[in-house]
Amino acid sequence: MGKLLLAIVIGLVGAVIVHIAVIFAMPLVAGNNAWARFSNLGPMYQIVGVEPLRSAGTDAIAPALGSDRQDFAFVDPAFVTASCRFSVAKGPVRILANYDDSPFWSASIYDRRGDTLYSINDRSAVDGVFNLLVGSREQIVEFNANLGPDPEETAIPVELDISEGYMTIRVLVDEESKRPSARAFVNSLQCEPVEPAVASRPDNRDS
């Protein structure tokens, strides 16, 4: 009986120690998540590129060792990867690429904790164009109502119940000769807040 009680006490003490350790570790973990690391690369709405972690050797593509842009061990060297942080607290955000000859790409939107909220690739996009309108349901409805019907509009509405998030896009480089094309695609990316266009109204003045 005594051994059982001792085991229970040791288990409880161990659980308390682990709980305290987790509490103290939370600020460190939160400060080292993807959102925090992307914030070190650039301000809100800026497109920032990241590179795969390289431990040795010289590479004209990768940044110098120790760079913040190498702080993403999950980046696949077969892709050109970029991201942007955004806020929809005051209105929707447009994320698009102005590049027609796009290779294979896939993009995801995450909340600040890194939970995936939305994913898309070139095969599921409208005509293969990367063009997203991100915001709450109310913001997107208001934007479309003020903009009016536009048959050439290819933006895909992405309704999110968040105030801040980030987008990460990965562009495939299946051959090294295609890397410039992938870079050009990433360089054409835009991530910027938009305001609902004021729908033009006819002048009702008496002639």
UniProtKB/TrEMBL annotation:
Q: Which domain of life is it from?
A: Bacteria
What InterPro entries does this protein's entry cite? DUF1254, UCP010244_IM
Instruction: Give every DUF1254 domain span.
Output: 68-193
Pfam families given in the database record = DUF1254
Protein name per the record: DUF1254 domain-containing protein
**Upper classification of the organism:** Bacteria, Pseudomonadati, Pseudomonadota, Alphaproteobacteria, Hyphomicrobiales
